[in-house]
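for the recovery benchmark. tokens below, seq after
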């Protein structure tokens, strides 16, 4: 039968694994949020640059993979903005910039909140590791010496 100390050590180890998995999940979500924020930042910069362009201006449109296609700007005052769930709507340039700005602000709030949660989980993980190390040391000291 396992001693009380061994049971406590097992409990703390399971709890530590839980917190480590939680930290990994939070880190993954933080990375995804940061990627979207970066994407929105580029979109905002592109919209700002469009303010200076006129109808008929030649543009290089990114296709991905560091590749571009030449295109002519047909109507610089109207843009198609994704609203989510596969829905896109036509908006003016100022409306589009405002939508992008609000999305960035909301994501930044979410990122900061999640970052705080991440720090709390990491702190708890460190605390548990210290307790586990202390418990292991205590058990070593209390263990009867082995006959060699």
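predicted aa per position
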């Amino acid at each position: 039968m396992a001693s009380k100390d061994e049971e406590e050590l097992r409990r703390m180890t399971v709890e530590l694994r839980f917190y480590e998995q939680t930290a990994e999940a939070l880190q993954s979500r933080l990375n995804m949020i940061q990627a979207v924020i970066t994407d929105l930042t580029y979109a905002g910069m592109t919209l700002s640059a469009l303010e200076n362009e006129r109808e008929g201006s030649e543009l290089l449109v990114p296709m991905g993979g560091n590749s571009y296609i030449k295109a002519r700007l047909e109507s610089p005052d109207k843009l198609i903005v994704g609203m989510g769930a596969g829905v896109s709507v036509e908006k003016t340039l100022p409306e589009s910039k405002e939508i992008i700005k609000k999305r960035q602000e909301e994501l930044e709030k979410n990122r900061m909140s999640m970052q705080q949660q991440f720090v709390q989980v990491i702190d708890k993980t460190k605390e548990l590791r210290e307790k586990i190390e202390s418990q292991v040391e205590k058990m070593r000291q209390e263990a009867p010496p082995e006959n060699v």
